[in-house]
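Item description
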Amino acid sequence: MCPVPWTQEGSDCIRCRLRDNGCRLSMKATASFPPSDAPTGAPVAAASPVAVARPRRGLWHLVSEVLDHGGPGYLQFAITNLCNADCQFCGFARSQLAPAARHSVTLEQARDVVDICARNHIGYLLFVGGEPMVHRDIRAMTRYAAERGVRPMICTNGGLWTEANMRGLADDGLSSVIMSIDAHDVVRHEQNRGLPDVCRKIKRANEFFRGAGIQTIASVTASRLIEDYDKLPAFLESLGFKSCTFSYPLTTLGSSYLSFSPSSLVRYTREELIGLFERIKQMKRRSGFAVMNPMESLTEMQRHLRGQPERFGCLGGHKYFYLDWHLNLYRCHFWETPMCSIYEFDASKLIRDGCRRCMIDCYRDPSVLQHVAVAASDAWQAAKRGRLLAAARHLLDRRNLTSLKAVWEGRKWIGGV
Protein backbone atom coordinates (compact mmCIF):
# COMPACT_ATOMS: atom_id res chain seq x y z
CA MET A 1 0.00 0.00 0.00
CA CYS A 2 1.02 3.61 -0.40
CA PRO A 3 2.73 4.86 2.79
CA VAL A 4 0.93 8.19 2.60
CA PRO A 5 -2.62 7.40 1.45
CA TRP A 6 -5.52 9.77 1.21
CA THR A 7 -8.74 9.01 -0.61
CA GLN A 8 -12.41 9.24 -0.25
CA GLU A 9 -13.40 5.92 1.25
CA GLY A 10 -13.65 3.18 -1.34
CA SER A 11 -12.09 5.18 -4.16
CA ASP A 12 -8.77 4.72 -5.90
CA CYS A 13 -5.72 6.48 -4.56
CA ILE A 14 -4.98 9.95 -5.84
CA ARG A 15 -1.90 10.44 -7.98
CA CYS A 16 0.85 9.95 -5.45
CA ARG A 17 3.82 12.27 -5.28
CA LEU A 18 5.89 9.53 -3.66
CA ARG A 19 6.46 8.04 -7.11
CA ASP A 20 8.90 10.88 -7.61
CA ASN A 21 10.92 9.30 -4.79
CA GLY A 22 11.13 5.83 -6.27
CA CYS A 23 7.93 4.43 -4.76
CA ARG A 24 6.90 1.21 -6.49
CA LEU A 25 4.19 0.32 -4.00
CA SER A 26 0.54 -0.18 -4.88
CA MET A 27 -1.32 3.06 -5.45
CA LYS A 28 -4.49 1.61 -3.94
CA ALA A 29 -5.19 3.34 -0.62
CA THR A 30 -6.25 1.28 2.38
CA ALA A 31 -7.32 4.04 4.72
CA SER A 32 -9.28 7.26 4.56
CA PHE A 33 -8.38 10.57 6.15
CA PRO A 34 -9.89 14.02 6.51
CA PRO A 35 -9.15 16.20 3.46
CA SER A 36 -6.35 18.00 5.31
CA ASP A 37 -4.36 14.76 5.39
CA ALA A 38 -3.87 14.75 1.64
CA PRO A 39 -0.31 14.79 0.28
CA THR A 40 0.80 17.85 -1.62
CA GLY A 41 -0.05 15.99 -4.83
CA ALA A 42 -3.75 16.27 -4.01
CA PRO A 43 -5.93 18.92 -5.65
CA VAL A 44 -5.65 22.25 -3.90
CA ALA A 45 -7.22 25.64 -4.38
CA ALA A 46 -5.47 27.98 -6.74
CA ALA A 47 -2.85 30.12 -5.06
CA SER A 48 -3.33 33.82 -4.72
CA PRO A 49 -1.32 35.68 -7.38
CA VAL A 50 -0.31 38.30 -4.82
CA ALA A 51 2.96 37.53 -3.04
CA VAL A 52 3.04 37.96 0.73
CA ALA A 53 5.95 39.88 2.20
CA ARG A 54 8.03 37.91 4.65
CA PRO A 55 7.50 39.25 8.18
CA ARG A 56 10.23 41.62 9.31
CA ARG A 57 10.85 43.38 12.59
CA GLY A 58 12.67 46.67 12.90
CA LEU A 59 15.37 47.19 15.50
CA TRP A 60 13.22 49.26 17.83
CA HIS A 61 10.37 46.79 17.65
CA LEU A 62 12.78 43.98 18.55
CA VAL A 63 14.20 45.99 21.46
CA SER A 64 10.66 46.62 22.69
CA GLU A 65 9.88 42.89 22.51
CA VAL A 66 13.06 42.00 24.39
CA LEU A 67 12.34 44.42 27.22
CA ASP A 68 8.67 43.50 27.42
CA HIS A 69 8.87 39.70 27.38
CA GLY A 70 12.39 38.53 26.48
CA GLY A 71 12.01 38.50 22.71
CA PRO A 72 9.93 36.44 20.29
CA GLY A 73 9.09 32.84 21.13
CA TYR A 74 9.34 29.79 18.90
CA LEU A 75 6.82 27.00 18.29
CA GLN A 76 7.47 23.68 16.57
CA PHE A 77 4.12 22.66 15.10
CA ALA A 78 3.81 19.03 14.00
CA ILE A 79 0.97 19.44 11.51
CA THR A 80 1.01 15.73 10.61
CA ASN A 81 2.66 12.51 11.73
CA LEU A 82 2.77 11.14 8.17
CA CYS A 83 6.13 10.86 6.45
CA ASN A 84 7.30 9.80 3.01
CA ALA A 85 10.76 8.79 4.28
CA ASP A 86 11.85 5.59 6.00
CA CYS A 87 14.76 6.66 8.21
CA GLN A 88 16.26 3.91 10.33
CA PHE A 89 16.47 6.09 13.45
CA CYS A 90 13.00 7.70 13.42
CA GLY A 91 9.61 6.59 14.67
CA PHE A 92 7.88 8.65 11.97
CA ALA A 93 9.31 6.31 9.29
CA ARG A 94 6.67 5.26 6.78
CA SER A 95 7.24 1.57 7.61
CA GLN A 96 6.86 2.18 11.35
CA LEU A 97 3.68 4.22 11.75
CA ALA A 98 0.48 2.16 11.69
CA PRO A 99 -2.26 3.46 9.36
CA ALA A 100 -4.69 3.81 12.26
CA ALA A 101 -2.26 6.15 14.02
CA ARG A 102 -1.95 8.60 11.13
CA HIS A 103 -3.31 12.04 11.86
CA SER A 104 -3.06 15.61 10.60
CA VAL A 105 -4.46 18.97 11.65
CA THR A 106 -7.00 20.81 9.55
CA LEU A 107 -6.37 24.17 7.92
CA GLU A 108 -8.90 25.76 10.25
CA GLN A 109 -7.05 24.39 13.27
CA ALA A 110 -3.72 25.62 11.90
CA ARG A 111 -5.14 29.11 11.45
CA ASP A 112 -6.35 29.03 15.06
CA VAL A 113 -2.81 28.10 16.11
CA VAL A 114 -1.33 31.02 14.18
CA ASP A 115 -3.79 33.44 15.81
CA ILE A 116 -2.91 32.10 19.26
CA CYS A 117 0.79 32.43 18.46
CA ALA A 118 0.33 36.05 17.42
CA ARG A 119 -1.42 36.82 20.72
CA ASN A 120 1.25 35.11 22.82
CA HIS A 121 4.48 36.59 21.47
CA ILE A 122 5.39 33.56 19.30
CA GLY A 123 7.41 35.12 16.50
CA TYR A 124 8.63 31.95 14.77
CA LEU A 125 6.48 29.03 13.66
CA LEU A 126 8.34 25.94 12.42
CA PHE A 127 6.17 23.48 10.52
CA VAL A 128 7.39 19.94 11.16
CA GLY A 129 5.98 16.43 10.91
CA GLY A 130 6.38 13.67 10.17
CA GLU A 131 7.00 15.42 6.89
CA PRO A 132 5.11 18.73 6.67
CA MET A 133 5.27 18.82 2.88
CA VAL A 134 2.85 15.87 2.64
CA HIS A 135 0.12 18.14 4.02
CA ARG A 136 -1.93 19.57 1.19
CA ASP A 137 -2.54 22.83 3.08
CA ILE A 138 1.09 23.65 3.88
CA ARG A 139 1.05 26.63 1.53
CA ALA A 140 -2.15 28.06 2.99
CA MET A 141 -0.75 27.65 6.50
CA THR A 142 2.49 29.36 5.52
CA ARG A 143 0.66 32.24 3.88
CA TYR A 144 -1.64 32.78 6.84
CA ALA A 145 1.26 32.84 9.29
CA ALA A 146 3.13 35.40 7.20
CA GLU A 147 0.02 37.55 6.87
CA ARG A 148 -0.37 37.54 10.67
CA GLY A 149 3.25 38.60 11.18
CA VAL A 150 4.51 35.23 12.42
CA ARG A 151 7.61 34.00 10.57
CA PRO A 152 6.81 30.65 8.92
CA MET A 153 9.60 28.09 8.62
CA ILE A 154 9.60 24.53 7.26
CA CYS A 155 11.71 21.54 8.33
CA THR A 156 11.67 18.94 5.55
CA ASN A 157 13.53 15.94 4.17
CA GLY A 158 13.39 17.62 0.74
CA GLY A 159 11.88 14.65 -1.07
CA LEU A 160 8.72 16.48 -2.16
CA TRP A 161 10.24 19.68 -3.55
CA THR A 162 9.01 20.75 -6.97
CA GLU A 163 9.55 23.95 -8.90
CA ALA A 164 5.89 24.79 -8.38
CA ASN A 165 5.74 24.35 -4.60
CA MET A 166 9.03 26.16 -4.06
CA ARG A 167 7.83 29.16 -6.06
CA GLY A 168 4.49 29.03 -4.30
CA LEU A 169 5.95 28.92 -0.80
CA ALA A 170 8.30 31.78 -1.62
CA ASP A 171 5.27 33.84 -2.69
CA ASP A 172 3.44 32.76 0.46
CA GLY A 173 6.01 34.45 2.71
CA LEU A 174 8.17 31.50 3.75
CA SER A 175 10.92 32.81 6.01
CA SER A 176 13.48 29.98 6.08
CA VAL A 177 13.94 26.28 5.37
CA ILE A 178 15.64 23.50 7.31
CA MET A 179 16.55 20.33 5.37
CA SER A 180 17.65 17.04 6.91
CA ILE A 181 21.02 15.44 6.19
CA ASP A 182 22.17 12.10 7.65
CA ALA A 183 25.60 11.37 6.19
CA HIS A 184 28.56 12.79 4.31
CA ASP A 185 27.82 11.08 1.00
CA VAL A 186 24.82 10.71 -1.29
CA VAL A 187 24.51 6.92 -1.13
CA ARG A 188 24.36 6.64 2.66
CA HIS A 189 22.00 9.56 3.03
CA GLU A 190 19.53 8.37 0.39
CA GLN A 191 19.64 4.77 1.58
CA ASN A 192 18.90 5.76 5.15
CA ARG A 193 16.08 8.07 4.09
CA GLY A 194 14.62 5.63 1.56
CA LEU A 195 14.38 8.56 -0.85
CA PRO A 196 16.25 8.00 -4.12
CA ASP A 197 17.32 11.22 -5.84
CA VAL A 198 16.59 13.37 -2.78
CA CYS A 199 20.05 14.93 -2.80
CA ARG A 200 19.47 16.31 -6.29
CA LYS A 201 16.20 17.84 -5.07
CA ILE A 202 17.92 19.33 -2.02
CA LYS A 203 20.62 20.87 -4.19
CA ARG A 204 18.01 22.39 -6.51
CA ALA A 205 16.04 23.70 -3.52
CA ASN A 206 19.14 25.43 -2.18
CA GLU A 207 19.69 27.07 -5.57
CA PHE A 208 16.09 28.22 -5.79
CA PHE A 209 15.76 29.56 -2.25
CA ARG A 210 19.11 31.35 -2.44
CA GLY A 211 17.82 33.16 -5.50
CA ALA A 212 14.58 33.97 -3.68
CA GLY A 213 16.44 35.39 -0.68
CA ILE A 214 15.21 32.64 1.65
CA GLN A 215 17.75 31.15 4.01
CA THR A 216 18.31 27.39 4.14
CA ILE A 217 20.21 25.34 6.68
CA ALA A 218 21.15 21.67 6.90
CA SER A 219 19.97 19.80 9.98
CA VAL A 220 22.49 17.00 10.44
CA THR A 221 21.55 14.10 12.70
CA ALA A 222 24.61 13.08 14.69
CA SER A 223 24.72 9.32 14.17
CA ARG A 224 27.03 6.44 13.29
CA LEU A 225 26.30 7.07 9.62
CA ILE A 226 28.84 9.89 9.91
CA GLU A 227 32.23 8.24 10.16
CA ASP A 228 34.33 11.36 9.59
CA TYR A 229 32.95 14.75 10.61
CA ASP A 230 35.72 16.49 8.69
CA LYS A 231 34.11 15.26 5.46
CA LEU A 232 30.77 16.87 6.21
CA PRO A 233 31.53 20.50 5.21
CA ALA A 234 32.56 19.61 1.65
CA PHE A 235 29.49 17.41 1.20
CA LEU A 236 27.14 20.06 2.56
CA GLU A 237 28.71 22.69 0.31
CA SER A 238 28.27 20.38 -2.69
CA LEU A 239 24.54 20.39 -1.94
CA GLY A 240 24.49 24.17 -1.73
CA PHE A 241 24.36 24.64 2.04
CA LYS A 242 26.21 27.50 3.69
CA SER A 243 25.48 26.47 7.28
CA CYS A 244 24.32 23.52 9.36
CA THR A 245 23.03 22.63 12.79
CA PHE A 246 23.45 19.27 14.49
CA SER A 247 20.51 17.35 15.92
CA TYR A 248 21.73 15.37 18.88
CA PRO A 249 20.94 11.62 18.90
CA LEU A 250 17.70 10.62 20.63
CA THR A 251 16.75 7.11 21.74
CA THR A 252 13.66 7.98 23.78
CA LEU A 253 11.16 10.81 24.22
CA GLY A 254 8.28 11.25 26.65
CA SER A 255 5.97 13.37 24.47
CA SER A 256 4.00 12.38 21.38
CA TYR A 257 6.92 13.31 19.12
CA LEU A 258 8.34 10.25 17.35
CA SER A 259 11.70 11.46 16.06
CA PHE A 260 13.70 9.00 18.14
CA SER A 261 14.70 5.36 17.95
CA PRO A 262 16.54 2.65 19.86
CA SER A 263 18.50 2.02 16.65
CA SER A 264 22.20 1.29 17.04
CA LEU A 265 22.82 4.20 14.67
CA VAL A 266 21.99 6.67 17.46
CA ARG A 267 22.79 4.58 20.52
CA TYR A 268 25.98 5.73 22.24
CA THR A 269 27.62 5.29 25.60
CA ARG A 270 28.05 8.37 27.76
CA GLU A 271 31.75 8.57 26.91
CA GLU A 272 31.04 8.14 23.21
CA LEU A 273 28.57 11.03 23.33
CA ILE A 274 31.10 13.26 25.07
CA GLY A 275 33.56 12.42 22.29
CA LEU A 276 30.91 13.04 19.62
CA PHE A 277 30.31 16.56 20.92
CA GLU A 278 34.06 17.12 20.91
CA ARG A 279 34.27 16.09 17.24
CA ILE A 280 31.54 18.57 16.37
CA LYS A 281 33.41 21.29 18.24
CA GLN A 282 36.62 20.42 16.37
CA MET A 283 34.80 20.54 13.03
CA LYS A 284 33.36 23.93 13.97
CA ARG A 285 36.83 25.28 14.82
CA ARG A 286 38.78 23.80 11.93
CA SER A 287 36.50 23.82 8.91
CA GLY A 288 35.33 27.42 8.77
CA PHE A 289 31.90 26.04 7.83
CA ALA A 290 29.11 27.73 9.77
CA VAL A 291 27.88 25.38 12.52
CA MET A 292 24.93 27.01 14.28
CA ASN A 293 25.10 25.01 17.52
CA PRO A 294 26.82 27.49 19.88
CA MET A 295 30.17 26.34 21.19
CA GLU A 296 28.92 27.00 24.72
CA SER A 297 25.90 24.78 24.11
CA LEU A 298 28.08 21.90 22.92
CA THR A 299 30.21 22.31 26.04
CA GLU A 300 27.04 22.49 28.14
CA MET A 301 25.93 19.11 26.76
CA GLN A 302 29.28 17.64 27.76
CA ARG A 303 28.73 19.01 31.28
CA HIS A 304 25.28 17.40 31.24
CA LEU A 305 26.75 14.02 30.33
CA ARG A 306 29.50 14.26 32.94
CA GLY A 307 27.03 15.22 35.65
CA GLN A 308 28.73 18.58 36.14
CA PRO A 309 26.84 21.78 37.04
CA GLU A 310 25.20 23.26 33.94
CA ARG A 311 25.23 27.00 33.40
CA PHE A 312 22.03 27.54 31.40
CA GLY A 313 18.57 26.34 32.26
CA CYS A 314 16.26 25.45 29.39
CA LEU A 315 13.64 27.97 28.27
CA GLY A 316 11.33 25.26 26.94
CA GLY A 317 7.84 26.06 28.22
CA HIS A 318 8.74 29.73 28.55
CA LYS A 319 10.00 30.78 25.09
CA TYR A 320 10.01 27.50 23.13
CA PHE A 321 7.21 24.98 22.67
CA TYR A 322 6.15 21.84 20.82
CA LEU A 323 2.59 21.41 19.51
CA ASP A 324 1.41 18.05 18.19
CA TRP A 325 -1.23 16.98 15.65
CA HIS A 326 -3.80 16.65 18.45
CA LEU A 327 -3.12 20.30 19.41
CA ASN A 328 -1.57 19.34 22.73
CA LEU A 329 1.06 21.88 23.74
CA TYR A 330 4.25 20.59 25.37
CA ARG A 331 7.17 22.53 26.80
CA CYS A 332 9.44 20.37 24.62
CA HIS A 333 9.70 16.98 22.94
CA PHE A 334 11.11 15.36 26.05
CA TRP A 335 8.41 16.05 28.63
CA GLU A 336 5.80 13.37 29.23
CA THR A 337 2.75 15.53 29.87
CA PRO A 338 1.37 18.47 27.88
CA MET A 339 1.19 21.95 29.37
CA CYS A 340 -2.35 22.36 28.02
CA SER A 341 -4.41 22.36 24.86
CA ILE A 342 -3.33 25.11 22.49
CA TYR A 343 -6.77 26.65 22.98
CA GLU A 344 -6.01 27.10 26.70
CA PHE A 345 -2.59 28.66 26.16
CA ASP A 346 -1.86 32.07 27.60
CA ALA A 347 0.76 33.71 29.81
CA SER A 348 -0.57 31.90 32.89
CA LYS A 349 0.61 28.58 31.43
CA LEU A 350 4.25 29.60 30.97
CA ILE A 351 6.86 27.53 32.80
CA ARG A 352 10.29 28.77 33.79
CA ASP A 353 12.03 26.41 36.18
CA GLY A 354 15.56 26.12 34.78
CA CYS A 355 14.99 22.56 33.56
CA ARG A 356 18.08 20.52 32.66
CA ARG A 357 16.52 17.10 32.11
CA CYS A 358 17.57 16.52 28.51
CA MET A 359 19.96 17.65 25.80
CA ILE A 360 17.63 18.26 22.86
CA ASP A 361 19.33 20.81 20.63
CA CYS A 362 16.06 22.46 19.53
CA TYR A 363 15.59 23.78 23.06
CA ARG A 364 18.99 23.78 24.76
CA ASP A 365 20.84 25.64 21.98
CA PRO A 366 18.42 28.59 21.72
CA SER A 367 18.25 28.76 25.51
CA VAL A 368 21.91 29.77 25.47
CA LEU A 369 21.29 32.27 22.67
CA GLN A 370 18.25 33.93 24.21
CA HIS A 371 19.51 33.97 27.80
CA VAL A 372 20.76 37.55 27.48
CA ALA A 373 17.43 38.78 26.05
CA VAL A 374 15.47 37.19 28.89
CA ALA A 375 17.94 38.64 31.42
CA ALA A 376 17.46 42.10 29.88
CA SER A 377 13.70 41.72 30.23
CA ASP A 378 14.07 40.57 33.84
CA ALA A 379 16.22 43.61 34.59
CA TRP A 380 13.76 45.99 32.91
CA GLN A 381 10.76 44.55 34.74
CA ALA A 382 12.61 44.71 38.07
CA ALA A 383 13.68 48.31 37.46
CA LYS A 384 10.10 49.32 36.64
CA ARG A 385 9.07 47.97 40.05
CA GLY A 386 11.86 49.90 41.75
CA ARG A 387 13.94 46.80 42.49
CA LEU A 388 17.21 48.29 41.30
CA LEU A 389 19.52 45.79 43.00
CA ALA A 390 17.64 42.90 41.42
CA ALA A 391 17.86 44.66 38.04
CA ALA A 392 21.60 45.07 38.46
CA ARG A 393 22.00 41.38 39.33
CA HIS A 394 20.22 40.38 36.12
CA LEU A 395 22.36 42.71 34.02
CA LEU A 396 25.66 41.72 35.65
CA ASP A 397 25.08 37.97 35.34
CA ARG A 398 28.28 36.63 33.75
CA ARG A 399 26.27 34.28 31.59
CA ASN A 400 25.06 37.28 29.61
CA LEU A 401 28.51 37.70 28.06
CA THR A 402 28.60 34.01 27.15
CA SER A 403 25.14 34.32 25.61
CA LEU A 404 26.19 37.40 23.63
CA LYS A 405 29.23 35.53 22.35
CA ALA A 406 26.95 32.70 21.16
CA VAL A 407 24.70 35.22 19.40
CA TRP A 408 27.76 36.70 17.69
CA GLU A 409 28.81 33.21 16.54
CA GLY A 410 25.46 32.71 14.84
CA ARG A 411 24.77 36.31 13.81
CA LYS A 412 24.54 35.61 10.07
CA TRP A 413 22.02 32.79 10.48
CA ILE A 414 20.03 34.57 13.20
CA GLY A 415 19.76 37.68 11.05
CA GLY A 416 18.49 35.69 8.10
CA VAL A 417 15.71 33.78 9.81
